[in-house]
Design brief:
- This protein has helices at 14-23, 74-77, 83-95, and strands at 7-8, 27-28, 38-46, 49-56, 60-67.
- Helices cover 26% and strands 28% of the residues.
- It is globular, with a radius of gyration of 13 Å.
- The protein has a five-stranded antiparallel beta sheet with strand order 1-5-4-3-2.
- The mean pLDDT is 84.
- It has one domain.
- The protein contains three helices and five strands, in the order βαββββαα.
Length: 102
């Protein structure tokens, strides 16, 4: 199932991954609901879309690409894109020398 897709890293790398994403312009968001086992949640705006990244204690990282939430309620009506979000995230992390297990 597409919504269950994620990237898997060693849990020991998550702090360094978060720092790399912050250097790429991601930031914490007060609007994100934290899921069970989640240790960080970051977001970065790309034009009219936002890339949301969640890191979990088991080393998994999930990502979603959705419409920028301040365009109105449209972000609630459309399903987030998982596969393009993971591709974008992989590309950003490769720049910093991170390669996922999966």
């Amino acid at each position: 199932m597409e919504s269950e897709m994620n990237l898997q890293f060693s849990p020991f790398l998550l702090r360094r991954i978060k720092i790399a994403l912050l250097k790429e312009g991601f930031h914490n968001t007060r609007f994100q609901f934290f899921k069970e086992g989640q240790i960080f949640g970051l977001v970065k705006r790309f034009s009219l879309k936002q890339l949301h990244v969640r890191g979990f204690i088991d080393g998994s990282i999930k990502a979603e690409l959705e419409l920028w939430r301040f365009l109105g309620p449209f972000h609630l009506l459309l399903k987030p894109k998982i596969a393009p979000a993971l591709q974008k995230l992989k590309s950003l992390l490769r720049k910093h020398g991170f390669a996922p297990f999966s």
